[in-house]
Design a protein that fits this description.
Layout: E1 5-9, E2 18-23, E3 26-33, E4 36-41, E5 56-57, E6 60-62, E7 69-71, E8 77-79, E9 88-94, E10 97-102
Antiparallel strand pairs: 1-10, 2-3, 3-4, 4-9, 5-6, 6-7, 7-8, 9-10
């Protein structure tokens, strides 16, 4: 059975908000971008640096350490030095709460 974790209340997660939650022992970054919630494994695939706190522009999160970029909607790497996609997680909004679970 897959683990479903509460990330927080929608009203407490405004545009640009980021947080990390643990899903099945893995750190996952949750991002509110343009009113949509996205969740990705909280590790750059280049050097395993956390993505949490990275700048989000044009639907991509940037690793603060070396500048790798990942699409929030697909996890695909879009800027070197990252070449491998980051794992995505499902987000659901239910009763004003944001939940994260494995795809």
């Amino acid at each position: 059975m897959s683990e479903r974790v509460r990330a927080g209340e929608v009203t407490q997660m405004p545009e640009g908000f980021q947080c990390a939650v643990e899903v099945g022992g893995v750190s996952v970054v949750v991002v509110n971008y343009e009113g949509q919630f996205y969740a990705l494994r909280n590790n750059c695939t280049h050097k395993d640096y956390p993505l949490l706190g990275g700048e989000v522009v044009d639907g991509r999160i940037t690793c603060a350490k070396h500048g790798g970029k990942f699409e929030l909607s697909t996890g695909k790497a879009r800027a070197l030095p990252a070449v491998k996609a980051v794992k995505l997680y499902r987000t659901e909004v239910e009763d004003g709460q944001v939940f994260v679970s494995p795809l």
